[in-house]
Write a structure and sequence with these properties.
The model has no long low-confidence stretch (mean pLDDT about 85). The protein has helices at about 1-40, 45-80, 85-115, 120, 125-140, 145-160, 165-185, 205-230, 240-245, 250-280, 285-325, 325-365, 365-380, 385-400, 405-430, 430-455; strands at about 185-190, 195-200. Helix 3 (about 85-115) packs antiparallel against helix 6, helix 6 (about 145-160) runs parallel beside helix 8 (about 205-230) and helix 11 (about 285-325) packs parallel to helix 13 (about 365-380). It has about 475 residues and is mostly helical.
């Protein structure tokens, strides 16, 4: 009996890994893109890096709202597919495409309206505000495409297809690198294998980085929509006019989406509001501190992206098993996913501690930024296992439709621990104090999510009927 249970658990763990790997690779490739972007922009100087870093917390806010809107529909699809109700899942897809596109257009309008004054509100130095404003304005123009990419990718993932969105996200990273190399730098000659090669370039600097990302988003969104609308095993639309006509609003699905998405959206507003407050705390510390903080966040993301990929797998497995009426199996998958995430991120955290100076050597030529960035990055390495617990556990809870309580937990942790401690520590210890506060908060958050997961009250949260 014990051997059979062990074999069954190994099979379930194997399934978690199989679903996680494409998502992990996509996340890692996205971080690789950020590294290359940061290195390209970093070569332009500290002001260029600080310009992007100044508005990064606000771009995370808008990106988080896109994720929340997509999740409101994709969790419904996961539970419906788990219950063998593919026809209803296709109806959810139609609602998702229309509703989230309109939401993306709303985000575009808001982004454009605040782009001019945003860097000033965030306390940026005069030398970086103009470039930061230009970068954010271009970013905002790509928000409808980013929203559709997120929606289509989430629907594919929750149907159990991790490979296609993973490959397309990796394609987006490659496109971004190509576009950035053409748009950031002016035309130039480089030496390749002892031969001079002329490379065309637009010389747009920071604006070129934003434009490269925007073009990559548009192309990838088109490919992702084609994949989910016409190629997905569970979600593709029926041939003929009937399937393409049924995009009319469905009040029940929209209400359910709002019930799931609004707590997540408020969570992202609160969390990113805290990150913006953190930016205001860091900004007076000077350009070196702002640049080091921005690059350290980019460097650290390589460590936690595997957790994000495993979290996507947990959402799918928990959602489908809840929909199939198997709550205990859903709980087991959640536990296996969290354990796997913690082990993986403990390893990546150790590597990050050892390789911090080398990572910053790739990101910037400025010695002051390198030294400060490596120092704060090593502080963060100690929080990675518990950070993984919070990331993966939240993905599992999301698959069950439990979004309100986790949002409140994030609110209490971020504002009650991180911001409060940062305000107290930054005046005395500078950026080191801010990152010490961040490390402490991530550990607290991980413990809170672990308690929530183990108590099991989320198992009765099936949200489709």
């Amino acid at each position: 009996m014990r051997c059979e249970k062990r074999k069954e658990m190994l099979q379930q763990l194997q399934k978690v890994i199989q679903l996680s790997m494409p998502a992990v690779m996509a996340q890692v490739s996205a971080v690789a893109m950020q590294y290359i972007d940061a290195a390209m922009v970093g070569s332009l100087g500290a002001d260029a890096t600080a310009a992007i870093g100044l508005v990064s917390s606000t771009t995370w806010l808008f990106g988080g709202l896109c994720i929340a809107a997509a999740t409101g529909f994709s969790v419904q699809a996961a539970q419906l597919i788990g219950g063998n109700r593919d026809g209803e899942a296709k109806q959810v897809l139609r609602q998702a495409v229309c509703a989230t596109f309109l939401f993306g257009m709303l985000l575009l309008a808001v982004g454009l309206s605040i782009s001019q004054g945003l860097p000033v509100w965030l306390g940026g130095e005069a030398s970086v505000c103009a470039e930061a404003s230009r970068y954010f304005r271009i970013y905002a123009c790509a928000l409808p495409a980013a929203q559709l990419r997120q929606t289509a990718g989430s629907m594919l993932q929750c149907s159990g297809d991790m490979k296609v969105p993973g490959r397309l996200n990796m394609m987006m990273c490659a496109l971004d690198v190509v576009f950035n190399s053409l748009l950031i730098f002016p035309s130039r000659q480089v030496v390749l294998f002892d031969h001079k090669v002329w490379i065309a370039g637009a010389g747009l600097g920071v604006a070129g980085a934003a434009l490269g990302t925007a073009l990559s988003e548009v192309i990838t969104a088109a490919c992702m929509l084609y994949a989910v609308l016409f190629r997905s095993v569970h979600l593709r639309l029926e041939r003929g006019n009937q399937g393409l006509r049924e995009f009319r609003p469905d009040a029940k699905r929209l209400r359910t989406a709002l019930r799931l998405a609004v707590p997540m959206g408020m969570e992202h507003v609160i969390l990113c509001g805290a990150q913006i407050a953190g930016t205001r705390i860091v900004a007076p510390l000077g350009t070196v501190a702002v640049a080091a903080n921005s690059l350290a966040v980019t460097a650290e993301s390589l460590c936690y992206m595997p957790g994000s990929g495993i979290s996507a797998a947990a959402t799918t497995l928990v959602g489908q098993n809840i929909g199939a009426g198997k709550p205990q199996l859903a709980k087991r998958y959640a536990g296996l996913s969290v354990a796997l995430g913690a082990m993986v991120m403990a390893c990546t955290g150790g590597l990050m501690f050892l390789c911090a100076p080398f990572m910053f050597a790739m990101l910037t030529p400025d010695p002051a930024i390198r030294a400060l960035g490596a120092r704060v990055l090593r502080i963060e390495a100690f929080a990675e296992p518990l950070f993984a617990v919070s990331i993966v556990a939240q993905g599992a809870l999301r698959g069950a439709g439990d979004t309100l309580v986790p949002s409140l937990m994030n609110l209490a942790s971020m504002w009650g621990v991180r911001i409060t401690a940062s305000v107290l520590l930054a005046p005395r210890f500078g950026l080191v104090g801010v990152w010490t506060a961040m490390c402490t908060e991530l550990c607290v958050r991980g413990v809170l999510f672990l308690i929530r997961l183990l108590r099991g009250k989320w198992l009765d949260r099936q949200i489709v009927v």
